[in-house]
């Protein structure tokens, strides 16, 4: 007797919604003059980052993000770019994590991260025209402007200690995830901004406060949805930051990682720009009411 | 030793010198930050439940628990007394540790006792046990409809719902995992 895989079959309504969401995202960016590009998913190296572990592939690596190629395109004179592509990160599996997931990245020359905040508000308005969402029994209000909160303010409000103390004790991520994130993005989305510069290897320092970087994370309903920077365009400083990340990787016993030389060379001609990476799977979760990331993809690694 | 990558629901690990079982588990990670392993843990001795978050690089000692075949001897003021039939060693379990399982114990019944540091901290019963009904309303003649239930009390003091045709003095089979009536048994 032939049997149908019911677990797959019953995902139809969400998979149909997912397909519509992807079409609407493309329509949104194309209408704004963004060029959709496809960059290689297998690379000699990604940006060295202490806590992002790539998956090796015949001596190269699967991309953890398309950002280096997209910035090389910016440097070559393409001012507005977007890409929807799969990214791979070793060992990341949880109710909101898949080791292979779908990322939307967009970059724009001549603007800083404040412009991206506005664009996030507009993108969500385009995808949810009613201006509200129901998620996990709570109502989300998407009407602009969304909340803007600095990392420092968030730690003062909800953390058991200050940002400086959390960094000194190497507990920044733990306190952020356990004590702060659950409060972010209710009832309006929150831009958590001004990260310590040491935690933003590819972001520009804030000119009037060089201790922090022009970086924000977008939270909806306690869930991290996107990460954005005013991009660092100083090639020398970028090399130093990569070397610092690489030292941290090696002292943590992680495999050595090649320096992305072509990127560093071409970064010198990149205009001031801002860029953002947004997790499509989590966005689909929010728009469809799904509780886990498993519900919004046809296949999880476990059923392959 | 277990690493964070081994953590999952149901895993039994030693924490602060006591055995714990992972009741809930999730992996999380700020996009650019450290991997975090969020656990809801149950202390297997005290039963207390609490949250703890671990980071990559931490290791866990497996909980040194063993199941031992034992026989139920009797109940006294100190609790319920079991004996290892090979070593004749005796182990006491209190009412709180046994929970509803205490209602399904019969003299000389063979059970598995979960041991930690020579202490009994849990019990696994046979899936089915036969017990006598000591109290139930009489069968109303003509009530033959399937699915009609009535309350009954068993020889161990356990109260449950039984079909209307079961009478006082009958022996019935109970599923110890659900605590529910299975069938009437002929002696």
- Our count of domains of chain B comes out at 3
The CATH superfamily label of chain A reads: Bira Bifunctional Protein, Domain 2
Structural class of chain B: mainly beta
Number of strands of chain A: 14
User: CATH fold name of the largest domain in chain B, please?
Assistant: SH3 type barrels
Q: What percent of residues of chain A are in strands?
A: 25-35%
CATH class of chain A: Alpha Beta
SS element count, helices of chain A: 10
CATH uppermost class of the largest domain in chain B: Mainly Beta
- What's the assembly state of these chains? heterodimer
CATH architecture annotation of chain A: 2-Layer Sandwich
Number of structurally distinct domains of chain A: 1
Task: Note the main sheet of chain B.
Answer: 6 strands, antiparallel
What's the overall average pLDDT of chain B, rounded? 90
What is the general shape of chain A? globular
Q: Could you tell me the radius of gyration of chain B in angstroms?
A: 22 Å
Most extensive contact:
A-B, 23 and 15 residues
Structural class of chain A: alpha+beta
The major beta sheet of chain A can be summarized as: 9 strands, mixed
Which stretches of chain B are poorly predicted, pLDDT < 50 over at least 5 residues? none
CATH architecture of the largest domain in chain B: Roll
């Amino acid at each position: 007797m032939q049997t149908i895989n019911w677990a797959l079959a019953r995902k139809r309504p969400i998979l149909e919604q997912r397909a519509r969401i992807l079409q609407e995202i493309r329509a949104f960016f194309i209408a704004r003059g963004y060029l959709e590009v496809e960059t290689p998913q297998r690379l000699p190296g990604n940006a060295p980052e202490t806590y992002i572990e790539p998956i090796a592939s015949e001596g190269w690596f699967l991309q953890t993000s398309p950002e280096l190629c997209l910035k090389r395109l910016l440097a070559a004179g393409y001012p507005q770019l977007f890409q929807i592509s799969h990214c791979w990160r070793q060992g990341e599996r949880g109710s909101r994590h898949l080791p292979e997931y779908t990322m939307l990245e967009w970059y724009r020359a001549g603007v800083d991260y404040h412009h991206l905040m506005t664009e996030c508000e507009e993108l969500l308005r385009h995808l949810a025209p009613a201006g509200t969402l129901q998620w996990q029994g709570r109502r989300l209000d998407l009407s602009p402007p969304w909340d803007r909160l600095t990392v420092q303010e968030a730690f003062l409000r909800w953390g058991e200690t200050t940002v400086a103390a959390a960094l000194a004790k190497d507990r920044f991520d733990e306190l952020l995830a356990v004590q702060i994130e659950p409060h972010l993005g209710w009832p309006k989305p929150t831009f958590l901004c001004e990260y310590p510069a040491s935690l933003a290897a590819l972001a520009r320092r804030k000119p009037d406060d060089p201790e922090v970087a022009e970086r924000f994370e977008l939270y909806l309903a306690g869930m991290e949805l996107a990460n954005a920077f005013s991009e660092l365009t100083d090639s020398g400083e970028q090399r130093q930051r990569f070397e610092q990340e690489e030292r941290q990787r090696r002292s943590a016993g992680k495999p050595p990682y090649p320096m992305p030389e072509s990127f560093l060379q071409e970064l010198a001609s990149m205009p001031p720009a801002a860029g953002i990476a947004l997790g499509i799977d989590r966005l689909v979760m929010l728009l469809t009411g799904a509780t886990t990331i498993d519900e919004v993809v046809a296949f999880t690694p476990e059923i392959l | 030793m277990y690493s964070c990558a081994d953590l999952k629901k149901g895993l039994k690990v030693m924490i602060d010198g006591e055995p714990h079982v992972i009741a809930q588990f999730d992996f999380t990670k700020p996009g650019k930050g450290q991997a975090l392993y969020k656990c809801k843990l149950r202390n297997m001795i005290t039963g207390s439940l609490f949250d703890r978050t671990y980071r990559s690089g931490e290791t866990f000692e497996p909980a040194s628990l063993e199941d031992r075949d034992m026989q139920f001897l009797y109940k006294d003021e100190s609790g319920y007394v079991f004996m290892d039939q090979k070593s004749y060693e005796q182990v006491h379990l209190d009412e709180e540790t046994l929970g509803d399982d205490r209602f399904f114990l019969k003299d000389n019944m063979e059970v598995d006792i979960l041991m930690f540091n020579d202490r009994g901290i849990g019990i696994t019963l046979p899936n089915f046990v036969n017990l006598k009904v000591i109290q139930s309303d009489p069968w109303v003649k003509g009530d033959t409809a399937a699915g009609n239930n009535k309350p009954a009390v068993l020889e161990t003091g356990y109260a449950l719902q039984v079909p209307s045709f079961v009478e006082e003095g009958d022996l019935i089979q109970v599923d110890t995992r659900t605590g529910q009536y299975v069938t009437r048994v002929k002696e």
